[in-house]
Each structure stands twice: as C-alpha cells, then as structure tokens.
Amino acid sequence: MSTTTIRLDDDLKERISAAADLAGKTAHAFIVDAIARTVEQVEAEEELHRIAEKRWAKLLATGNSVPWDDAKKYLAARGRGEKPVKPTARKLEH
Asked: How far apart are CA 60 and CA 52, in angstroms?
C-alpha cells in the first residue's frame, strides 16, 4: 500500500473530522471511503456513456428504435411489478 499526501484547508479538515465522527469512522477511513465512492461513481458514469455510445451507433446503423409510447407503457408496467413483453424495435419514421 502506498501513501499519498493531500493538502486540505483548515475548514475542510474540520468538516471531515466532524463528518467522520458522525459516521463513526476515523478521518482517514472517511476520506478513503469518500475517494472510493467517487472513483466508483466516475467508473459507473463512464460505463453508462460507453453503453449509450454503443446503442446510439446501433441506432444510427440500423435505423431501428422503440417508439417512446411503447417504451413508456412497457416501463410503467414494469414499475407496477408486471412482466410485460418487451416492445419491438422498428425503423424510425422521418
């Protein structure tokens, strides 16, 4: 395990200490957890963007998409706990 030094202004250092106390952690553990959560968030966002780019490229290549009304009905049914049939993609109309 390596060591990294960060410089914190006094106000932030006090806030971290207070928040760590509230969380029942040391300031060190609090900071490490905060960094880990931030890294996980950035990684998740990057994965979401990768998936979105892949799907956008497929849409542009095929011209197939699920109409919003069909998608909305499907999602609403899923939200109610139902198991609806997935809507079928079809060519976009211009």
From this structure: 12
Do the Cβ atoms of 25 and 33 come closer than 8 Å?
yes
Which own/partner contact pairs does 15-22 have at CB distance under 8 Å and 24+ positions apart? none
Residue type, 67: P
| Torsion from C-alpha of 15, 21, 22, 25, nearest 10 degrees | 110
Pairwise CA distance, residues 48 & 42, whole Å = 10
Q: What is the pTM of this model?
A: 0.72
How many residues are present in the chain? 94
DSSP tag of 90: E
pLDDT in tens, 10-41: 999 999 999 999 999 999 999 999 999 999 99
Q: How many CB atoms lie within 10 A of CB 58?
A: 13
Record the tokens describing residue 53, joined without a space: 């780019």
Which residue reads 């931030």 in tokens?
38
